[in-house]
Amino acid sequence: MKILLAILLNVSFLTGHPITGQANMSVLVQNMTTGEVIDSYRPDHVVPPASVQKLLTTAAALEILGPDFRFPTVLEYTGTIEKGVLHGNLYIRGNCDPSLGWKGNTAFLNRWVKAVREAGIQRIDGAVIADMTMLDGEAQNPGWLCEDAGNYYAPGIFALNYYGNTMNITLKSGDPGSVATVLGTEPRVEDMVFINHVRCGKITHDGAFVSGLPYSRERYLTGAVPSNLGTFGVKGDLPNPGLLLARHFTNRLREAGVQVKRDATYIADYNPLTPPRQELYTHYSEPLSQIIQETNVNSNNLYAEAIFRYLGTRYTLPGTINNSQDLLRDYWRRRGVSVQSAIIKDGCGLAPQDAVSAKAFVQLLMIMSRSQNADAWMASLPVSGQTGTLKSLCPKTPLEGRIHAKSGTIAGTKNFAGYIDMPNGDRWVFAILINSAPGKARNIQTVIQQYLLDVYKEHQ
Known about the structure:
Blueprint: H1 2-15, E1 24-31, E2 37-41, E3 46-47, H2 54-65, E4 72-77, E5 80-82, E6 85-87, E7 90-93, H3 108-118, E8 123-124, E9 128-131, E10 166-172, E11 181-186, E12 193-196, E13 199-201, E14 207-211, E15 218-226, E16 231-237, H4 241-255, E17 259-260, E18 265-267, E19 278-284, H5 288-297, H6 301-312, H7 321-334, E20 356-357, H8 358-369, H9 374-379, E21 403-410, E22 413-421, E23 427-435, H10 441-459
Parallel strand pairs: 6-8, 7-9, 8-17, 9-18, 12-15, 13-15
Antiparallel strand pairs: 1-2, 1-23, 3-20, 4-7, 4-19, 5-6, 10-11, 10-16, 14-15, 21-22, 22-23
């Protein structure tokens, strides 16, 4: 009776609070050590998980591929090498590695140049070609909102990803009412066309937005920025990261004295009539354990979607979004996770149609805690009050450092799913999914934080 009363009191804090009381909600808190349900409210009810969706993707990848898996990117050539001349083309065949050129680190290109030179190639009669045929041409997930397309947090996903698939657009603001001036991009992207409607106004915040589609050279700039601000940056997606990589590699080869006759280009569709190729060099990403750590700690959408799309290639080539959706659902269903009513549109949680229950996340978290990959899994989750997207959750409280979880945030939504380590050695597993609440996400988090502290104090 005492346990039941405590559960009712905890649930009533959420259901009776003016911020969360009318929200679309699914909650489950369970002692994983004893099996006791600590708290529960509509645990089978599916709601949009936002970035908590990344748990489905990263956990499946860790279990299917293993923590030591590395994404390969392969240099291949057609034709023959005779007296220092490659009579053919040099290809960069992508396999969805999200980390090439991450944060502008292009040192790997020097290793690629070295491999070309060690193969005895001093001149290429053809071109450097980015091969992006591992995935189909649907680079933009159709479940994402049109208003997100072109923004840095919703880039197209390709078999070749580069520079985080992101460019920084530099603008200069002027007098109130004027249109800001586009100065350039970093990295520099040839042939970009900016249709610019960014106005300078009497505001104090940056309200500029980027929109556009994969492969398109056009990007629309809209919104407003403070007047007379000077130069500032707006981040948008790279329309064709594979082509940019091929261009950078071509330039690096030429700088090293390797002549390349033709300009860099790319192929996006598989052609069975392509001449046979010879492998020249294989580049490997850092281990998957580090890839998923970046994905979950910093809630990296590019990384999550690249993993999601790669998993889809386990069914057939070229990989499709539908294959990725089916694989994720089928995999977790076979593992006993309640995904029968779940809606899985993407791997990162950006699609508003995504819907998963608190019970499903708790089941997944239990499986992963007992997995042979548990150490890598736990290391991939941010820690309350200390790291990543959980740095602002429960700092300087009894729960600082005790929660390992993934957060999810969109307008009117704040979600968490993860573990709580109790002082007596028990481990709790929980999922708190709150959607369509009034006010800002940080206010919802304040309510959730108080809820977690209350439940913790009652049971410590």
